[in-house]
Write a structure and sequence with these properties.
By secondary structure, this protein is mostly helical. Helices cover about 85% and strands about 0% of the residues. The protein has one domain (about 5-165). The chain contains 9 helices and no strands. Helix 6 crosses helix 8 (about 115-125). The chain starts with 5 loop residues before the first helix and ends with a helix.
Amino acid sequence: MIFVRAEEVNHLHDLIIKFGYPALFLGCLLEGESVLIAAGFLARSGYLDLNLVMLVALAGTYTADVTIYFLGRKKGQGIISKFPVAKKYYPKVKSLFDRYGIWAIFITRYLYGLRLAAAGSMGLMKMRKGQYLPFDFLSCTIWAIVIGGLGYIFGASLEALIGQIKHYEKLVVLFIIIIGAGIWLLRRVWNKRQKENVN
């Protein structure tokens, strides 16, 4: 989620420079790590103010969480049938909640694809507002500080790494194909030998 292509990084930079904090807010309404990393880096470059970056990111992500949490409370089980993503992730979120309790709010914040699903699931599970709202606010605050700070401190290094990854991505894909073909071939040979042993 954080490691995006170099072209995407440049595109995010252009959007944030052009539209400023509203672009950051809208980006953080969704899975906003990449946008926040880019904004943190731009704050280091002098285009944005880091404190405002963190506040806007907090506002965006908390707004999204609270909206989806109340949607989950209101719609109940109906939300699962209407949204395939909710159906897919609800069991995972419930499992984490059963195991870690309210700390699942913090855990799902950093698991790709689970943040918004977790907010809806917490509402669906009827977690008390007095529990969810303050804990989620604290979770959003820590997330905004940590991810924004990473963008500010390591943004240039991440960008350089992304550029290097781009140069080698074809080799990586080729390597994955070779490994996959090797596993498929080994399974085929294994299955053939198993059939021969049975006969």
